[in-house]
Design goal:
single chain; mainly alpha; 79% helix
């Protein structure tokens, strides 16, 4: 093996390790966010009006590329197993959670030309309105169809439930997406104490 081939192999292994690390990080964060948010679900309908994991999933795909869908899928599958979902709902949840950020990221990249730094007003508007709207529509449609297959009585309230599901994902994208992108691309600026204090105050207000 030549020196060039040996170097190429080392780079390939390092690339694979970085990818696996990114997948594990996305899956772990998605699972943790989802588990922490489960108590906020509407008990009788198993739907949450706020789902931050959707914002995390979209930010991960925008930052790391479409290949990070694997991490989102693993995280969503882990949530399904941990909560003992019926298989139609579990399958629908995984498909919805994976397809939504992929489609939303494609729309934002190809049509809007989104910048990860979010340094334009257009970027913020596109991320919250278009990205959140597309992501919420996909998860609400696919996920709710799976929910109704698991519990057919839910069909009678399909559209009200669809609106709640869509709102939850839209809010998740709006609250988590821009923050995750800015922290990942401009962390040196965001780490200043004044910015941290302002961010902490804003986060406290949102939580309240």
């Amino acid at each position: 093996m030549t020196e060039r081939e040996s170097r190429a192999n080392r780079l390939s292994r390092a690339h694979a390790l970085r990818y696996l690390g990114a997948v594990a990080l996305v899956a772990g964060l998605y699972f943790a966010m989802s588990r922490l948010n489960l108590p906020l679900r509407i008990v009788n309908w198993r739907i949450s009006a706020l789902w931050p994991a959707s914002g995390l999933a979209l930010a991960a795909v925008l930052l790391g590329g479409y290949r990070l869908w694997v991490g989102v899928a693993i995280g969503a599958a882990a949530v399904s197993v941990a909560t003992r979902m019926p298989w139609p709902l579990a399958a629908g949840s995984v498909v919805a959670a994976t397809a939504a950020p992929l489609l939303a990221a494609w729309v934002l990249r190809r049509i809007v030309g989104l910048r990860n730094t979010c340094d334009r007003v257009l970027d913020i508007i596109a991320l919250t309105v278009i990205g959140g709207g597309v992501s919420g529509a996909v998860t609400a449609t696919v996920g709710l169809a799976a929910l109704c297959l698991a519990w057919p009585t839910h069909w009678r309230a399909f559209w009200p439930l669809w609106g709640t599901w869509w709102l939850g994902d839209w809010l998740g994208v709006m609250l988590v997406g821009p923050a995750a992108l800015v922290w990942a691309t401009r962390w040196r600026e965001a780490a200043r104490w004044r910015v941290l204090a302002e961010g902490g105050a804003a986060l406290s207000a949102v939580a309240l």
